[in-house]
Amino acid sequence: MAGDSTKPMTLPSGPATLCFDKDDFMKNDFNVDTFVMDCRRRVPLETLRDDLHVYLKILRSAMIELINKDYADFVNLSTNLVGMDKAINNLTVPLGQFKEEVLSVTSAMENAIEAVEEKLKHRQKIKEKKASLQRLINIVQSVEKIEQLLGLSSKLEATPGTDLNGQLIERVATEFNKLQFYVMKSRGLPLVEQVKPRIASITSTLQYSLEGSFLEGLDHNNTDILRQCLRTYALIDKIKDAESLFRKHVVRPFMEEIITEDFLRSSSLKGMYTKVLEFIPKHCQILKDITSSSSPSGDVIRGYDFVVNAVWPEIISNIEARIPSIFAPGNPDIFHEKFTISMDFLSKFEHQCGSQASVKRLREHSSYQLYMSKWNLPVYFQIRFQEIAGLFENSLVIGFNKTTENEFYLTASHQMWESIYKCWQSNVYLPTLVHRFLRLTLQLLSRYSVWIDETYQKEVEKPSVSSGSRSDRASTPANNMVTSKVNGLDTSNQQPTIPEPEPITLGQILFLIADAEKSSEKIFPVFVEHIEPKLKSLDFDNIDSIKGAFSDSQESVLFNVPKFQSYVVQEVTNHCSLHLKQVADIPRHYRRTNREVPSKPSSYSTGLFKPLTMFFDEHKIVLREAKREEIARAVLQNLAEQYYTATSDVLTSVKKMEDSLKRLKKARGTGVSTGTLGMSDDDKIRQQLIIDIEYYGQQVETFGFSSSSLQGFSQLLELCKEAKGSMSQTATNPSS
Fold first, then answer.
1. Residue ranges per domain, the chain?
2. Any bridge partners for residue 152, and if so which?
3. pTM of the predicted model, to two decimals?
4. Mean pLDDT of the chain
């Protein structure tokens, strides 16, 4: 009973066979539903119920044991509490007195602390007033000392003819610097307001003396005087005044003489920039030596940058005011030339800065941002975009016209690459617009791919759907069907209408296929030769992703090539297969005509390959050997399949007719003649087909293929075997 109440209660252990852990009941987040669901995953509910009953009995037994163990304490609990109220009441009065004493001491301590803080604050105010008074005394003393050094009268007028040498000016500047510090700390005090006119007179006299000495040092290239003046300007925190003085008296007269429209017309923009750059080594070198870390004497006066803060703003101010015409983007060629020259000038100017820190200050200067913003690059690119993309878009209207160039066959393909090359020509491309020219290049390739796709949909897909076949739109009738396509509809009874554009020819499709494949082959070489070096020069870090974009363009250009090639194969196959209709006429030639046994190929066999041969002869220039083999193999395979169908139909028909005649003669009781009458008509038909198939195989080999390599021809040979097997003994051995 007297144990630690904070000690967690320990539950009695149960059998090891229980399906749950007894400690789960003592967890703060114990939840009955969660407990039951967790146990149910392992055992059935009946087992859980039985285990809970078992553990309940264990808990009851443990509780009884606990009560029995401390039984006396439980029974005497009420007896032990007798007199507790009286004891508590006896403690109330002493505790109240102790509380009053503590509060009294606390109040006394707080009063003492407040008194000490008040005295400290009073002392601090006295100290501040003493310091302020001392600063006022210092101000008066510094003013009087400076006036004495400068020779100023009590009426605040400089003594005429006062000659201040460099050392005296430096002494005055040191004292003036102290004066400025004291005035800043004592701002708003009445005495400071009283001496302000005297301080203003000192300031003007000092600046006048500094200006005179500074300009004298510049005129005579006197390093000592310049060093003292610049050190003094820095000491009195007037560095900007020195730079402005140099800009006004030295830089401005020079730039106003050089940066003019007349000088621009006579010496060109490049000549003007060259003359401007000559100013820096001629007039700024001595100042750069004094203020830069590369000073030979090692005595560097830091904080100045005359090239950035004096020369550059004056150059831009004069360019903007006197020759704004150089920024006009109306003529892109002139704009490109002027922009390139100007960026070259800017690069050379940065080299004159002398340090990376100076270059950084130049690029952060407001006049630098103004100068760059004057070049309207978006307008320039828009003009170039309309010029480049416009020419290409116009070429797509006559895209299938034959180009006079040797590399490509079609105007569209030639113009597309001319446009891409133009994007990266030195007289068009600007590094600042690299991302835009890169996007334009990809857009040109994409537009070319879209044009190829539109051509396929317009010239192949839709006409095929509407008319079922393009055979009527082939080139010339019969023998010259691959040169041009004409619409074979009879329009004699129709009203005159606006003629539709002539459909493209198979020859033009071959040109398109060849150009697309050539373009795909050129994409990466052109990228590596013309584009990638420019990206690397600009430290592009996404070159791999850009290569991926060009790879996608390459695939897009080639996407429709297999479809066009399949269409060409189908068109040539259709014209060749016209001759296969004559296969069905073979039975008519031999049945009941008493013709001789066939010994040579049918007339259709000799004309079967004529369209394919003419096709290759006419387009041998555009068809490379590999492409020729692909088309030839596909056409011959298609023809073999159609030939097999036609021949199989004829043989099936002959077989049916032969069987029908046999059944008829058998029904009439007449015998079948054995061999005295020679070869039967049906066998003549079979013999002719066998000769024609063998001739087909010979013709296939003239195109450079083994007849056995064509799957369709293998099926034809099987037909030959079946036909030979169906022929009578007389037919197979005519001599008997």
1. 22-80, 238-375, 380-485+502-559, 569-732
2. 158
3. 0.68
4. 82
